Amino acid sequence: MEMHAHKPQKPLQSFSLPLSSSSVLQFYIISKMPPVLDIERELVQHSEPVKSVDLHPKEQWILASLYSGTVCIWNYHSQELVKSIKVSESPVRSAKFVASKHWIVTGADDKFIQVFDYDTTEKITEFEAHTDFIRSVAVHPTLPYLLSASDDMVIKLWDWEKDWECTQMFRGHAHYVMQVAFSPKDTNTFASASLDSTIKVWNLSSYSRWAFERVNYIDYFMRRSKQYLVSGSDDHTAKVWDYEAKSCVQTLKGHTNNVSAVCVHPELTIIITGSEDGNVHIWDGATYSIENTLNHGLERVWTFGCMKGSNRVVIGYDKGTVTVKVVCPHSGVSMGSLVKEKEKKEL
Questions:
Q1: Which uninterrupted H or E stretch holds 297?
Q2: Potential cystine with 330: which of 36, 138, 194, 284 (Cβ 3.0-4.6 Å)?
């Protein structure tokens, strides 16, 4: 891949939020009226540790990247394996659908980005993108751009319409960059999380730096026209932060081990947290009370996937993947969770 020299870009700003190691952040939108929830398990798939999950926007598919170096596509309706691709001998820590191109894009510990046609499983391209493990990839929602973040402390922007040219490099972190995520409010802006105890918010020319402690994951959320963050950390809690005031507005307590994943559903008034204690807690997004706890017996929780327009949530564990469907039979009342575990064969 051709890589041009670029002036390294700096992030826009920073602030201090006292998190612990293995922290998780996600941005979300909360609806006005909290729903009553039924949670129906749709798929249980046993596997090696799941490092990332993604939902296809049109097909009934889940993409899971595994520590074994394989990516799998499962149909959550038929519970059948659609595709399995051996990407690397190293862990694949991040994989995303690019539905407009019928692609899967992966980043792995072998330092390579690889692109596959998910219809044929043919490899479209591969290139060495970083000088250390690739922790995260993020696909721009409208433009032909891919972000990659690495243990080499660099974030890179790739343009697939320019033959995967590296068009921008973003430097400023002093430790591993654990995750990158585009803002849903301004898609020319993205955030990065690092073990250097900072979160940085970037656009093409500037950045802001926020100080945290050993941050692993980030994402954005909006509520009543204000922007917030939600985080999870090794102090066994999740926290909701006011983005502008840079202050914690709520601490969610209930886990007994590191909070390793968070997901605020884009359609429902719920916050979902996962932990190395093996539990998934579902919180009322308005009152911040625990409404339900799920435990599928697959050991530690590592990742969640959810998507606007879908009521499904995908959970990645040490020993497999579970898909649940969140059903809202009523609205306009206080949220209480009812869990109905449908009888499904375990594949």
A1: none
A2: 36
Give the residue with greater pLDDT, 208 vs 35. 208
Report the alpha-carbon angle 31-35-39, nearest 5: 120
**Strands 320-330, 270-275: parallel, antiparallel or unpaired by DSSP?**
unpaired
Residue 238, amino acid:
A
Task: Say which residues have a Cβ less than 8 Å from residue 5's Cβ, sequence separation at least 6.
Answer: none
Q: Which two tokens stand for residue 235?
A: 């102090």
Q: What is the secondary structure of 21-80 as a DSSP string?
A: SSBEEE--B--SSPPEEEEEEEEEEE-SPEEEEEE-SSSSEEEEEETTSEEEEEETTTTE
Measuring CA to CA, how many Å separate 293 from each of 38, 174, 274, 289, 315?
Answer: 13, 37, 10, 11, 13
**Structural tokens at position 110:** 């072998």
Residue with tokens 């941005």: 27
User: Which residue is associated with the tokens 């820590």?
Assistant: 93
147-193 residue pLDDT tens? 999 999 999 999 999 999 999 999 999 999 988 988 888 888 888 88
In this structure, the strands spanning 13-14 and 207-211 are parallel
Cα distances from 63 to residues 100, 138, 170, in angstroms, run 16, 14, 28
